[in-house]
Amino acid sequence: MGRRSGILEFAILGLLRESPMHGYELRKRLNTSLGVFRAFSYGSLYPCLKTLVANGWLAEEPGSVPQDTPAASLAGRRAKIVYRLTADGKEHFEELLAHTGPDTWEDEHFGVRFAFFGQTSRDVRMRVLEGRRGRLEERLDRMRASLARTRERLDDYTLELQRHGLESVEREVRWLNELIESERAARDTRHGSAESGGSADPPEQDASREPSQDRPRERFESGDTGGPPQRRGGSRPDRSDDTTN
After folding, report:
1. How large is the angle between the packed helices 23-33 and 3-18, nearest 10 degrees?
2. Distance, first Cα to last Cα, the chain
3. Separation of alpha carbons 29 and 24, rounded Å
4. SS3 201
């Protein structure tokens, strides 16, 4: 299976893990939620769906028809097929989620993997993020070396385009650094809580946590350090001072 087909397979299984859908809904979600699939057509989607069904990872079911639909409007119209993830499909998707090979660091695959980080364990997220950062740092070195060699031969517009590409990669590296530090801080906080006798979620439950609990931006912006809330106004006054004789 080609790289693009593998990415599409992963995305379909991940979306159907949320809920069953028919082909039109799937294509719409692929286009709107995962922009890398905007160029995909029905000619790419349906062969992949058929392959997933043949492998036993998806099941086809007839779609329901609204009760108020006139019978005349249904004449000659084929019922929509709804695709549902099977138990084997869920197991296969879990295996794909745990994969952290070099292909997960590439441009197209990384974006899709990141979209499903809410269903991915923290250790796997860390390996993918660190692998992506390493790949981009290598790209930065090559781009800087190339720019240094060819700067004098480039016209102003080509030079500006090169700088724009360089700055884009630098921004993503900074973004990845923030995400990695956020993941490490959350991991250290959890380990510290477990060592001090506090409760901690078992590792196998990490992937099933709600996405909002692991959203890095919320942790950066909230400034929450995990400590107890502080009472304003200092210590509480002794109410005995208010009693009257």
Report:
1. 110
2. 88
3. 9
4. coil
